[in-house]
Specification:
The chain is an alpha/beta fold and 274 residues long. The protein has a single domain (23-272), classed as Glycosidases (TIM Barrel, Alpha-Beta Barrel). The chain is 43% helix and 19% strand. It has helices at residues 2-19, 37-46, 76-81, 100-110, 113-126, 142-160, 179-183, 200-213, 235-247, 265-272; strands spanning 23-28, 53-62, 66-69, 85-91, 130-134, 165-170, 189-192, 219-224, 252-256. The protein has an 8-stranded parallel β-barrel, surrounded by 4 helices. Helix 8 links the parallel strand 7 (189-192) and strand 8. Helix 4 (100-110) crosses helix 6 and helix 8 (200-213) packs parallel to helix 9 (235-247). The longest helix has 19 residues, at 142-160. It is globular. The two termini are 34 Å apart. The protein binds 2-acetamido-2-deoxy-beta-D-glucopyranose (NAG) (5 copies). One 2-acetamido-2-deoxy-beta-D-glucopyranose is lined by residues 68-71. Residues 63-64 line the site of one 2-acetamido-2-deoxy-beta-D-glucopyranose. Residues 1-19 form the signal peptide.
Length: 274
Amino acid sequence: MKSIIILFLINLIVVIVKCREQSVLTWMGLERTNETINSDLEQILSLTQILDSVAFERFNLGANSTLIVNNFTDVQYPLQTAGLKTLPMVSTCCPFGRPEVIEYARQLINNPQPFIDSAIQHAIDEGFDGWNIDIEPVGGDERDSIGYANFIDSFAKQLHQYNKTLTVCAATWTPFWNLSLLAQTSVDKIYTMSTYAGTFQGFQSALQFAIQSIPLNKLAVGVMTVDENNQPFSTEELTQRFQLIINNNIKSLGIWSSPIPLNWLPFLKQFVSS
Ligand SMILES: *[C@@H]1O[C@H](CO)[C@@H](O)[C@H](O)[C@H]1NC(C)=O
Ligand SMILES: *[C@@H]1O[C@H](CO)[C@@H](O)[C@H](O)[C@H]1NC(C)=O
Ligand SMILES: *[C@@H]1O[C@H](CO)[C@@H](O)[C@H](O)[C@H]1NC(C)=O
Ligand SMILES: *[C@@H]1O[C@H](CO)[C@@H](O)[C@H](O)[C@H]1NC(C)=O
Ligand SMILES: *[C@@H]1O[C@H](CO)[C@@H](O)[C@H](O)[C@H]1NC(C)=O
């Protein structure tokens, strides 16, 4: 009888853990952002009660629908072993604003399959749980936003056939992204970057727009660890922002980027149990 009760309790805990609605992802910039990779990893591995997913710089979008391996430190194994969901990034850095990025993006939109096939193969070979696409061109237009949403939809549907997830980063500072169109695709989550805003007012209005454009089950709010002057947020500022996040029933957060400042931890704990 006792062991049946214990078994029941273990199952209940498993169900509760699995059913947690809230998700917190952290990004690792690795060599690209000059991280101290070992200590960031150590922090992430110590926070598995709070974090469930990690996205990390590993790939870039190349010309002609290609995926480029950046050869930064490979963090897949320690993250996966700790039970974290691994979502490698596809970036278009560096520097930001390179004119070829919109060309690469249009080549991808017009001929997505080579990229998608390569991404699926990497996910299978390296054991990723999915992808985090962060294509940030300058000079796109509304026509591109339709093509980009079609690409994201097709990529998501194909990844789902392999039980892999697709997440995409988007903002409002270029018409290349249309949040409403992206929200109508099969993508699993949209991480908003407009919500990186340094001022509270900027954060508030970006969050409002994101909520109007993206259903809560797909909306992941991007938050940055520093303000517009590269200064960490005070506990008062964090109180204000997390209050808004929790009041609006936000279910997913993405933190740009590790390491996570220590004064965030009580707020994140509160968020995951909200
Ligand atoms: C990276 O960090 C090292 C050591 O702290 C420093 O010397 C270097 O200037 C940094 N590079 C960049 C690009 O920030
Ligand atoms: C992309 O394809 C075009 C047309 O086939 C070719 O001219 C160009 O060299 C290719 N670019 C790269 C970087 O492979
Ligand atoms: C990464 O390493 C591979 C194998 O050495 C090389 O072919 C590739 O060009 C490298 N990628 C970058 C972005 O340097
Ligand atoms: C995906 O998951 C489902 C349900 O667990 C399973 O039946 C299916 O075989 C999996 N497909 C692949 C490609 O792993
Ligand atoms: C996004 O697309 C919808 C539907 O085509 C359109 O009505 C809306 O104006 C677009 N939003 C932006 C910000 O361009």
